[in-house]
């Protein structure tokens, strides 16, 4: 499915990168370990939302191969076309998750791998809270980001100009906790994408569970 409103800066970046993004991050053992964390805890046939699903690999492909029902959302029509071709067992939609209706308690797990960094801090915090509400009580939430304390920083990512906003690691944890998520494990790594124009980057992986009751306030 294609959303008519896909002309965002993030869409332009990932339309240009296409399959090169998948190749650059294919060697990430931390990402695979994060998926293993989910696989070990998900009930058979779980419904999973993959935010910023990219080419569908590895996240949607691994989860769908394990028998889970995966819905991937991405703003890049190029990425959605690649993902739909590579992982036909999953469903992919070209849409901005910030404007996509999500029913409360409708997913068993939500994955957010590096898909917040071109949003403002307010948008990131609001989206994490909304994604947490989309989880059933006790549902799982996996988030990965680059934990840099920067706001609207103009940089270059794999040869593409990007404007990045991030949080320091402790502030990322605070955002997910404020959304009613309990951090069960976290891992910090340095990773260098396999690409001529890529630089080493810090990465933070959080593995969380939605609390059974709403957070106070």
TrEMBL record:
Keyword Methyltransferase: yes
Ranges where the Methyltransferase domain occurs: 48-139
Keyword check for Methyltransferase: yes
This protein's UniProt keywords: Methyltransferase, Transferase
GO molecular function: methyltransferase activity
Highest taxon of source: Bacteria
GO biological process: methylation
Protein's UniProt name: Methyltransferase family protein
């Amino acid at each position: 499915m294609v959303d008519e409103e896909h002309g965002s800066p993030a869409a332009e970046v990932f339309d240009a990168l296409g399959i090169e993004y998948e190749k650059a991050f294919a060697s990430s053992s931390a990402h695979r370990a994060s998926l293993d964390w989910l696989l070990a805890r998900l009930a058979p046939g779980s419904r999973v939302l993959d935010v910023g699903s990219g080419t569908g690999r590895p996240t949607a492909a691994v989860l769908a191969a394990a028998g889970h029902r995966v819905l991937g959302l991405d703003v890049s029509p190029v990425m959605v076309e690649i993902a739909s071709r590579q992982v036909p067992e999953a469903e992919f939609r070209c849409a901005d998750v910030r404007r996509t209706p999500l029913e409360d308690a409708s997913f068993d797990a939500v994955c957010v791998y590096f898909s917040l960094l071109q949003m403002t801090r307010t948008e990131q915090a609001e989206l994490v809270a909304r994604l947490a509400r989309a989880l059933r009580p006790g549902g799982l939430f996996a988030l990965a980001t680059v934990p840099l304390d920067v706001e609207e920083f103009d940089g270059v990512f794999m040869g593409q100009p990007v404007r990045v906003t991030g949080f320091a690691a402790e502030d990322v944890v605070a955002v997910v906790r404020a959304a009613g998520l309990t951090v069960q494990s976290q891992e910090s790594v340095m990773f260098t994408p396999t690409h001529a124009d890529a630089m080493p980057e810090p990465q933070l992986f959080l593995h969380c569970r939605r609390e059974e009751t709403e957070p106070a306030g």
